[in-house]
Design brief:
The complex is a heterodimer. By secondary structure, chain A is mainly beta. Chain A has helices spanning 2-14, 74-77, 150-154, and strands at 20-27, 30-35, 39-44, 58-64, 67-73, 90-96, 99-105, 107-114, 119-120, 134-140, 143-148. Classes of the chains: A mainly beta, B alpha+beta.
Chain lengths: 167, 687
């Protein structure tokens, strides 16, 4: 878990009280969190251009101010909830190692700050994500956020988005 | 005050590269028997500019070689020496050495010191060949008399060094130290202090005064500087000073030994007139530089690419506006529509203008070949007349840089294998000198570059025999065009002898691969005994292409127009099944394989029946096929966007573009489609 140690070091450097900020979003009934620094922007869903013969969860590509950006639907990828596309469908635009990817989720709730104490290690079972892609479980009052290592997930061979991560 | 000089290095290297190329071009064009003084001056200026730059950056090895080159050139251009072919050869070798040294400084590549020494010797020997004759003419030495002011001539010691007395203005001690260190690199330096605490350097160096001024000007205003020739110790040796030419123009050194005492005497007072002299070198250099550079500026490619991208965006935005206002009532919005029309025109002009920035004349590539052909022909004992045509034809910079290597290979091949030895040419009734033509021309959206020789032509039988022995699938009845393409197979060479020029069989396949990677094609035409022409066809630019948009189901794809031959709706009777292997279409007495786009991309089409849809006949690599689509949408210029920058390579797709409505459309990779069509049924290549 090089990621955790890395963030912890940077947090220690920033001071005791500082935590990590996570963007919380929902897929079906589960609540997830990703590092806010990887999020470039949040947009509504726009029609995409389908890419022939690509897996289902790769919806296609869209024009994001002149750049061609692939859009993946996490609900299809992890079989959570029903993939409907309406005015409430949200696309989180991520910037990972200089590459831009759109991620369709059911909704985006808020940005929360989690201290290292609030992040518990993920159990080996219980989520649809491979635990390799998890940072841990964040507890926030009654809520539980599944914290995803989005860098690792999006650059994984499983997603098939990137031949090789640039950075 | 220290300045980080390294930031200027790149500019120097760029400039020096250009100057060297220019020099070589001029040298090759030089008519030895009657050299044009303009050309000689231009060569001299190039050498001088490089020397000045090199001295500024303390690349003493480069300075040394350019200095000798310059001295010799100076003598020739002043008519003191007649130009001979040996001179031209020596200059060319010197140019190579300089390029090597430049690379050494720039990229840290190794420098062959013996080559440097030998060229120095050669240049020295050539200039001394005349020095022997010079004294006879020297007493008259009109050059000195012609000088407008009586100037203290530099006193040259036996090593060709001069002693300069450099009087600094009142500057802080640390500047003095910095300057002393810099100047110390040029030669030996002694420092003294005047009564009013100003510093004075006595510098013994082989450098010219300009260079000293140039170095000082980094620290202080050169106008405050007083440089004089320090006479004291040099005067004794002045009488014996060899007539090594240090300067030029009014710096013409006196060669008359009798003048030496006269030189020594006024040296101390000479500070006043030298005030004018010292500026001469700088101003003259500025002017020379200006005349060459005022018409162009140096901009990094990234900036240009950024500009091109932005204009691409603008074109898309403009198309969006056009689409939106097309729905408006022309009566009520006449003025808006007019303005939009104007915007459309301006945008198009702007786009064209911006695209042209990236365009460079083919001369950039062609200019390096005359030298290569000359050397190669001399080495092989052949006579070659080299002609270039269409050097002004412009091509995208990205492509121009990548075409150099393949073209070099082809030209080399032509000289080595194509053109025969002079005696053999005589026997077959041709002129002794073979003709090698390198030409470039626009043809539609492509640029066609041809390397053509009037040599022996390709030997069909030998290629076939070789192909057979290598186990390639060939038959004796193959059409010529197919036979010629065999030479692009890896490891294929029919040359009897492997020379260091070519014949190892590596290369032609690389040529082909490089050109295909650029989206181009290679064709060979050859007639035995008459010659061979290799034609490279390349798209003009990679950033924008003329596209034809086609619709299948609800999806729109872009076909690069360059591949489209025609589109038509076939009659039902012309579409035939081939034993479960797919369909063929009969078009103009030709059966073409039918590629149903809906099938490849798994789309729900409007028409599955070719006789209801439209077929677009495509051609790539000499192979044709018919692509079945629902309908044609239109024809437009599209800005090619890379799909891989955020996604990955998609089979059958070469890129994407943004349509007028802001949506994305994919550009079909036609050559991949055609390739796959041959194996589509057997082995699907898409995922």
């Amino acid at each position: 878990m090089s990621y955790t140690t890395q963030t912890q070091t940077s947090m220690e450097a920033a001071g005791e009280s500082a935590g990590n900020e996570f963007l919380a979003f929902t897929l079906g009934r589960e609540e997830y969190g990703i590092d806010i620094l990887r999020v470039q922007e949040i947009r509504g869903y726009e029609p995409v251009t389908r890419i022939a013969n690509a897996p289902d969860f790769i919806k296609g590509v869209v024009n994001l101010r002149g750049t061609i950006v692939p859009v993946v639907d996490m609900r299809i990828k992890f079989d959570l909830g029903t993939p409907t596309y309406d005015q409430f469908t949200v696309v989180i635009i991520l910037n990972i190692g200089g590459r831009v990817v759109g991620m369709v989720v059911d909704s985006v709730s808020d940005v929360t700050t989690l201290t290292p104490e609030q992040i518990k290690p993920a159990p080996e079972i219980g989520t649809t994500f491979d635990t390799d892609y998890l940072i841990g479980l964040g507890t926030l009052d009654e809520r539980m956020l599944i914290l995803v290592d989005i860098d690792k997930l999006m650059s994984s061979a499983e997603m098939g988005l990137i031949e090789k991560l640039a950075a | 005050m220290t300045i980080d000089m390294s930031q200027f290095y790149q500019v120097f290297f760029d400039e020096a590269d250009e100057l060297l190329a220019e020099m070589e071009k001029l040298l090759l064009a030089l008519d030895v028997s009657a050299p044009d003084s303009e050309d000689l001056n231009a060569i001299f200026r190039a050498a001088h500019s490089i020397k000045g730059g090199a001295a500024t950056f303390a690349f003493t090895d480069i300075t040394e070689v350019t200095h000798m080159l310059e001295s010799l050139l100076d003598r020739i251009r002043k008519g003191e020496m007649a130009l001979t072919p040996e001179h031209v050869d020596a200059f060319l070798v010197a140019k190579d050495v300089l390029t090597m040294q430049m690379d050494g400084h720039h990229h840290g590549s190794s420098v062959d010191q013996t080559a440097v020494d030998s060229v120095c010797q050669r240049l020295k020997a050539l200039s001394q060949g005349i020095v022997a004759d010079a004294p006879a003419a020297a007493p008259g030495a009109p050059a000195v008399a012609a000088a407008p002011d009586p100037v203290a001539a530099p006193v040259v010691d036996a090593d060709g060094n001069c002693r300069f007395r450099i009087e600094l203005p009142d500057v802080p001690q640390k500047d003095v130290d910095a300057l002393a260190a810099e100047l110390g690199l040029l030669g030996t330096i002694e420092q003294e202090t005047l009564d009013d605490k100003r510093a004075v350097f006595i510098l013994t160096t082989g450098e010219s005064q300009d260079n000293i001024v140039a170095i000082c000007s980094f620290v202080l205003d050169p106008d405050d500087l007083k440089i004089t020739y320090d006479a004291a110790p040099a005067a004794a040796s002045a009488g014996a000073a060899p007539a090594e030419d240090l300067g030029y123009g009014i710096f013409e050194p006196e060669k008359n030994p009798a003048a030496a005492p006269h030189v020594a005497a006024p040296a101390v007072d000479a500070a006043v007139p030298t005030g004018e002299v010292k500026n001469y070198g700088r101003r003259a250099t500025d002017k020379e530089g200006a005349s060459q550079e005022s018409s162009s500026i140096r901009v990094s490619v990234e900036k240009v690419d950024q500009l091109i991208n932005l204009v691409g965006e603008l074109v898309i935005t403009q198309a969006m506006i056009e689409q939106r206002i097309a729905a408006l009532d022309p009566l009520h919005h006449e003025r808006l529509l007019n303005s939009a029309g104007q915007l459309a025109r301006n945008t198009r002009d702007l786009q064209e203008a911006v695209m042209s920035i990236r365009m460079m004349p083919m001369d950039y590539v062609f200019s390096r070949f005359p030298r290569m052909v000359r050397d190669l022909a001399a080495k092989l004992g052949k006579k070659v007349e080299f002609v270039t045509r269409g050097a002004a034809t412009e091509l995208d910079k990205g492509l121009i840089e990548r075409i150099v290597d393949p073209l070099t290979h082809l030209v080399r091949n032509s000289v080595d294998h194509g053109i025969e030895m002079p005696d053999k040419r005589k026997v077959s009734g041709k002129a002794e000198a073979g003709k090698l033509v390198l030409s470039a021309a626009h043809q539609g959206g492509n640029i066609v570059i041809e390397v053509s020789d009037d040599g022996g032509g390709l030997n069909r039988d030998r290629i076939l025999a070789k192909a057979k022995s290598q186990g390639l699938p060939v038959s004796d009845t193959m059409p010529d065009a197919d036979v010629w393409q065999l030479i692009f197979a890896p490891g294929f060479s029919t040359a009897e002898v492997v020379t260091d020029v070519s014949g190892r069989g590596v290369g032609m396949d690389v040529v082909k691969r490089n050109i295909t990677a650029m989206g181009g094609t290679v064709d060979i035409r050859s007639i035995p005994g008459t010659g061979t022409t290799i034609a490279i066809s390349l798209p003009l630019t990679l950033a924008i292409l003329d596209g034809m948009s086609v619709k299948v189901g609800e999806e729109i794809y872009i076909l690069p127009l360059g591949y489209v031959i025609e589109s038509l709706q076939p009659a039902a009777v012309d579409v035939k099944e081939v034993a479960g292997q797919g369909k063929v279409v009969k078009v103009r007495e030709e059966y073409l394989p039918l590629i149903p786009l809906y099938q490849i991309f798994a789309i729900d089409p409007r028409f599955e029946d070719p006789s209801q849809g439209i077929i677009v006949i495509l051609e790539s690599d000499g192979k044709k096929a018919a692509l079945l689509v629902d309908s044609l949408v239109g024809q437009q210029q599209v800005v090619v966007k890379n799909l891989e920058s955020n996604f990955r390579k998609v089979a059958g797709i070469s890129g994407a573009t943004i349509l007028g409505d802001g949506g994305v459309s994919l550009i079909l990779d036609v050559s991949a489609l055609l390739r796959s069509s041959r194996q589509l049924n057997a082995d699907p290549v898409f995922f």
